[in-house]
Amino acid sequence: MEPLLTIQTPETVLFWFLAPLSVLAALGMLLVKKAVHSALLLAWVMVTLAIFYIAQGAVFLGIVQVVVYTGAVMMLFLFILMLVGVDSSDSLTETITGLRPIAITAAVGFGGLMVSLLGRATLGREPVGLEAANAAGNVQGIAALLFSKYVWPFEVISALLITAAVGAMVLAHHQRTTPRPTQREQSTNRFRTGSLAGAAGLPGPGVFARHNAVDVPALLPDGTPAPSSISATLKARGDVIDSAQFQLDNVDTTVVEEK
Amino acid sequence: MSLDNYLYLSAILFTIGAVGVVVRRNAIVVFMCIELMLNAANLSLVTFARINGTLDGQVIAFFTMVVAACEVVVGLAIIVTIYRSRRSASIDDASLLKR
């Protein structure tokens, strides 16, 4: 008997080209240190999945995957990463001892179980393929199902979407419990609390006449760098230059004769 | 090639996502791993739709996408709220109930 569904060679090639790449990107997501790199790798995995959807006859879902996931959701992730910034939790050090070996063992067990289960399972009939279902167009077919058989789940999920939007607004709303301090009160507080050193403002960065970039801490009178002169974000990123190299006696002041 | 290969890929991606949820400490990365798991499940739904020759699997994958979008919106709002009060996005730091 002629099988109902034959998979063409281009799809096979596409699968064996993209599937290893998506698995590698997913593994990279676990292994890279910075959350931004994880987000970019996840975006790549989602793009490959969108290509697989289109190859499998789910054209509408493929486009929705690109628009909703790689467009909106990943953009939201990058937005939040920008808000939260660089964090100590980006590090890969193990905080709970023995967690990683246990997790990897459990994952290998679970993955092996799933793969062997799928390998042993048989459907009892040939795969049908979507040619008949997509005959009038994929979008039309999905719309026909969505507004007939699945109209009730569709309504429920719209309620869920509205609830999520309201929930996000409630969570993001920040109500002040104390009145905002006026400029006068802020000025008074600067003199009344802590040391007087910061009362006139924090020292600016840079070493006078040598290097005035924002990543070079200013030098205190005794020659040590002033930590309050540079931004905490630069410090967390490790992008601070040692200002001692710009001290006068370290800089070569001998005049070189030009040829 | 058989359609099972898509299901194997889906299982592998799901497993990788599950490991990420357990191993990583940054709450945002944990969230991204949950997204990976949802996507892997969607791939298997699309494959099942093709095996069965009906579009029902695709409709359910579409619903999964909407649920995932809701989950991302609320989850990221929670992360930002926690970050605002504790200046940390590490899931190990949110241990108030332990003490």
Structure description:
The complex is a heterodimer of chains A (259) and B (99). By secondary structure, chain A is an all-alpha fold. In chain A, 54% of the residues lie in helices and 0% in strands. Chain A contains 8 helices and no strands. Chain B has 99 residues and is an all-alpha fold. Chain B has a single domain (4-86), classed as Helix Hairpins (Orthogonal Bundle), CATH 1.10.287. Helix content of chain B is 78%, strand content 0%. Chain B has 3 helices and no strands. In chain B, α2 packs antiparallel against α3. At the A-B interface, α1, α2, α3, α4 and α5 of A face α1, α2 and α3 of B.
Q: Give the SSE string of chain B.
A: HHH
CATH class of chain B: Mainly Alpha
What is the mean predicted local confidence, pLDDT of chain B? 89
Work out the strand percent of chain A: under 5%
The helix content of chain A is 40-55%
Regarding quaternary structure, what we see is heterodimer
Order of helices and strands of chain A: HHHHHHHH
Per the CATH scheme, the topology name of chain B is Helix Hairpins
**pLDDT averaged over residues of chain A:** 84
The low-confidence parts of chain A are none
What would you say about this model in short?
Chain A is mostly helical and 259 residues long.
Q: What are the SSEs and their pairings?
A:
The complex is a heterodimer of chains A (259) and B (99).
Chain A lengths: L8 H23 L3 H21 L3 H26 L14 H22 L17 H9 L4 H22 L10 H10 L39 H6 L22
Chain B lengths: L3 H20 L3 H26 L3 H31 L13
Helix pairs in contact in B: 1-2, 2-3
Which features does this protein show?
heterodimer; A: mainly alpha; 0% strand; B: Helix Hairpins
